[in-house]
Design goal:
By secondary structure, this protein is an alpha+beta fold. It has 3 domains: about 350 residues, Roll (Thiol Ester Dehydrase, Chain A), CATH 3.10.129.110; about 140 residues, 4'-phosphopantetheinyl transferase domain (Ribosomal Protein L22, Chain A, Alpha-Beta Complex); about 100 residues, Ribosomal Protein L22, Chain A. It has 14 helices and 27 strands. The protein has a 14-stranded antiparallel β-sheet. It has a 5-stranded antiparallel β-sheet with strand order 23-27-26-25-24. A 4-stranded antiparallel β-sheet has the order 17-18-22-21, covered by helices on one side.
């Protein structure tokens, strides 16, 4: 990478904040001339002249026309010039268009944006911190950040607006170096501790303190996917605002090289026509994307949690500029990945450097990753091949192990309709029951989506959140058809056991049940089976516990298939024959209706299932 010249160490370049647009906004305060931080600034700990702060709105383009504004300076709640400031900024989905391009849940046209968990990236948080801190150093330029620590997401949870309180205070004045160190933090409403905090540095000139050493990429190879494909196939979830990777990406054992493009800032807002950024948050987010691609090649996934130091050496290049970027992995320890970064300005000079960009590492199963990327192309559950099951039926199973490491609440947002999310939330006091219920919904929707895609002859499936499952009069699950695609929906049966769920979807009535094989007391058998059935059990060879479980599952399936319920006693369903091959002939005593149920053993579980197609192909037992 390029070396910085000695001129860059004390450069005449000044970030655009040097134009002190924010000072015009502060004139609405009672103090018409805010104190400046200059070479004659007092020693750290001294105070400037203080004036009471009035509430004021800053950055309103409707009143400011086309004049550039700092887009994240909202209402100023408190202000001691040169010493401390508190700013309130309300994020809204209507104004802050950038939020739509950094939402964790991918459900376009299916769920409203507020239900898709829009999140403020760490790099945009740095911009928010810098703008507030700049109000304490009018006339000085942003030269970097130190000790950035992000402790929680800034996310809009089922709301279209979120109020932020941004604080800044002069923490240290370095008179010798003519530098202001401003401690800044973002507090989210109703949260006691800050979501992110940092020291923001301002001075009259850029300065070089970081001496980073980048080695040659070892075993370099070209990443096989283009940037366009990376975004189109959602290997990265970012929308157009944050799609700053361009050109070729080269990966090595301990680093990567690529190009990032500067985006036009006005695309990030609805009405702010000339936002004045102090850094380039979208492009900086793409640094994390480049690191993410390096990690994904090693089956790891990352998100940023801190930055040791970031230094700027010149103003932001013009929109459209392609900036060569190099990352080097300096430490890969446990759950943490430490990275150094250098970004050029597109004209051969170094624009910025970052030391100790730190990511948290985690790992997802491939099936979970693909489902999260493209829910309409991938199923989260596993196909279950069962003997004599109609090819037209779809049977899926999922266990808690399949979703290990993925937050259940986030997964619910991918899979559940808004109507179902309310039910999920109501179960939060009983987490195990909540997860079992969610697993059943996932299996059922996967079975239905697979069934519907087969009927339509397409590979593209419905989004799981487009389907709504409710309980019918007898408690059996059924789909609610609210869209034209769902004029014909399959019949459905769901069963849960311990940490797994199974679902069966078919054109006609179906029933499925799953239970673990385990010893059961004689009282259970006497309650569940009549004398004739107990005699059948005694005549069967093999594991007695397994046959008792098969009989119980068969009765559960018959109740589901016939839709008649247990009416308080499982003996209302009588097994008239049980075969060594697992077939059970069940008769409902009150109605005389009969059905054939097939039972199989899978590992430590018994699975029973029945449906119209199965019954037609199975002969009665002798």
């Amino acid at each position: 990478m390029k070396e910085l010249s000695s001129h860059a160490m004390e450069s005449d370049f000044l970030p655009l904040i040097g134009r002190v647009y924010e000072v015009e906004s502060l004139r609405m305060l009672e103090n018409p001339e805010p104190s400046r931080v200059d070479s004659a600034a007092p020693e750290s700990g001294s105070t400037f002249d203080q004036a009471p702060a009035e509430q004021a709105w800053v950055g309103q383009t409707a009143e400011r026309g086309d004049e550039p504004v700092l887009p994240f300076i909202g209402r100023i709640l408190e202000h001691v010039p040169g010493q401390a400031i508190v700013v309130e900024r309300e994020l809204t989905l209507d104004e802050d268009l950038h939020l739509a391009d950094h939402a964790f849940v991918h459900a376009p046209g299916v769920k409203p944006l507020f239900a898709c968990l829009p999140v403020v990236p760490m790099t945009l948080s740095l911009e928010i911190l810098a703008e507030t801190a700049a109000c304490l150093a009018p006339g000085y330029g942003l030269i970097g950040f130190e000790n950035v620590k992000a402790t929680r997401w800034i996310e809009l949870v089922d709301t279209d607006r979120l109020r932020l309180r941004i604080t800044g205070r002069l923490d240290q004045w370095d008179g010798e170096r003519n530098t202001a160190h401003i401690a800044a933090a973002i507090h989210v409403e109703n949260q006691a501790t800050p979501a992110i905090q940092a020291h923001v540095l301002f001075a009259p000139h850029y300065r070089l303190d970081l001496e980073l050493k980048f080695t040659e990429l070892t075993n370099p190879y070209r990443y096989p996917r283009s940037a366009e494909e990376i975004y189109r196939e959602r290997h990265l979830f970012h929308g157009p605002v944050y799609q700053c990777l361009v050109g070729e990406i080269v990966l090595g054992n301990r680093g990567a090289a690529g190009e990032l493009v500067v985006q036009a800032p006005e695309i990030m807002f609805r009405t702010i026509r000339k936002p004045q950024f102090l850094i380039e948050p979208a492009l900086l987010d793409a640094v994390g994307q480049l690191i993410g691609i390096w990690a994904m090649e090693r089956e790891r996934y990352v998100f940023p949690i801190s930055v040791g130091k970031l230094e700027l050496y010149r103003p932001t290049p013009a929109p459209g500029t392609r900036c060569p970027t190099r990352i080097e992995i300096t430490r890969d320890e446990g759950k943490l990945l430490f990275v150094d970064v250098e970004i050029q300005d597109g004209a051969g000079a170094v624009w910025m450097r970052i030391r100790d960009w730190t990511d948290w590492k985690f790992r997802w199963e491939k099936r979970l990753l693909n489902f999260r990327r493209l829910p309409t192309r991938h199923l989260l559950s596993h196909a279950l091949e069962l003997p004599a099951l109609s090819p037209a039926a779809s049977c899926r199973m999922i266990s808690s192990e399949d979703i290990a490491g993925f937050d259940s609440s986030l997964l619910a947002r991918f899979c559940l309709h808004l109507d179902e999310m309310e039910t999920f939330s109501d179960m939060r006091s009983h987490i195990p029951g909540q997860q079992h219920w969610l697993l059943g919904r996932i299996a059922a929707k996967d079975a239905a989506r697979e069934w519907l895609a087969r009927q339509a002859g397409t590979e593209e499936m419905l989004h799981p959140a487009a389907l709504i499952i409710r309980n019918g009069e007898q408690g059996q699950p059924e789909f609610v058809a609210r869209t034209p695609e769902l004029k014909r929906v399959p019949r459905l049966s769901i069963s849960h056991s311990e940490h797994r769920a199974i679902a069966l979807a078919h054109a006609g009535p179906v029933g499925v049940d799953i239970e673990p094989v385990r010893p059961r007391p004689p009282s259970f058998v006497e309650t569940m089976a009549g004398e004739a059935e107990r005699s059948l059990l005694r005549d069967l060879d093999g594991d007695a516990d397994e046959w008792i479980t098969r009989l119980w599952c068969a009765k559960e399936v018959a109740a589901k298939l016939l839709g008649l319920g247990m009416n308080g006693s499982p003996k209302v369903y009588e097994a008239q024959a049980m075969g060594e091959d697992g077939l059970v002939h069940i008769v409902h005593r009150d109605s005389g209706r009969a059905t054939m149920v097939r039972t199989v053993r899978r590992e430590e579980f018994v699975i029973a299932y029945a449906g119209a197609a199965i019954a037609e192909t199975e002969a009665g037992l002798a």
